[in-house]
Amino acid sequence: QIVVYTALLAAIACVMLFVSMSVRAGLRRVPLVLLVPVAIGLLASVHLLPVAELLPESLRSERLVGQELFDVSYPSTHLLPWLTPNGFGSQATYVGAKNEPELMTFFGVAGLLLGFFGVLSKATWRHPLGRMALAAVVVGFLLAGGELSPFYRWLVAHVTAAAHIANPGRAIFLVHVGWSVLAVFGFAALSSWSLRGRAGRLLLVLGVVIVGAWRLVAALPDEIRDMVLERMSAAGVGIAVAGAAVVGAVLVRRVVGVPQP
């Protein structure tokens, strides 16, 4: 699965590189990007080759059917741990969707806000790497949604190979990569925005985060909502301090200049 998702990320990068340059230049760079999944496969061969011998003797080689295709799906409520990693507990106290290791993605206040700034930056939409990050986030959510994603349901219904890739929730790996790159673009954009521009974008992003978190909490099942709220409240001081630090850094009159991507 790591090879599959790495190859998918490389394919996204190839498309974005190709559409942003001349055909001749694109044809020179695309083969280099395609070498990435090949390199990953070679590095992982010490595990892949023994597994290939074992698979014919294992149930893991069978095509998944029915609910097995959707057991590990990434629900929208699991965006809450982007703010606090322990909202659904861990291990014995975990109350979130199946499975915990695949679905726990954490960025914190700084990473979350900077990622949104990256989305709002014009440089992100102009630069091939920025467009790759945006595409990775979109494709990652479309796949990771699993049972909740119309695209993934269509995929497993019409593409035979998709039925052999379990745990669609693991595609959140693509979102993690894309959002990390968006955060870099967001940080770079701070030095080019005026104080008024930073303040306006900050209010917009904070509004989206607050309203989004409220809606996600409301969407939690009744039996775990109070428990999740209690855990998030316990982490509230840390979240507030981190948020205040980020807000202060964004609103300072001068931001340390960084090279634009």
Brief account:
The protein has 12 helices and no strands. The protein is an all-alpha fold and 261 residues long.
Structure description:
This protein is mainly α. It has helices at 2-19, 23-43, 45-54, 100-103, 108-120, 122-126, 128-144, 150-158, 172-190, 195-218, 222-234, 236-251. Helix 5 (108-120) packs across helix 9 (172-190). It is globular and about 60 Å long. It starts with a helix and ends in a 10-residue tail after the last helix. The mean pLDDT is 81.
Radius of gyration: 21 Å
Percent of residues in helices: 55-70%
**Low-confidence sequence ranges:** none
Taking all residues together, what is the mean pLDDT? Answer: 81
Number of strands: 0
Characterize the largest beta sheet: strand count, sense, and whether it forms a barrel. none
Note the total helix count.
12
Structural class: mainly alpha
- Elements, N to C (H/E): HHHHHHHHHHHH
Beta content comes to under 5%
- Separation, N- and C-terminal Cα atoms: 30 Å
Overall spatial form: globular
Helices and strands in order, then pairings?
Blueprint: H1 2-19, H2 23-43, H3 45-54, H4 100-103, H5 108-120, H6 122-126, H7 128-144, H8 150-158, H9 172-190, H10 195-218, H11 222-234, H12 236-251
Helix pairs in contact: 1-2, 1-7, 5-9, 5-10, 5-12, 7-9
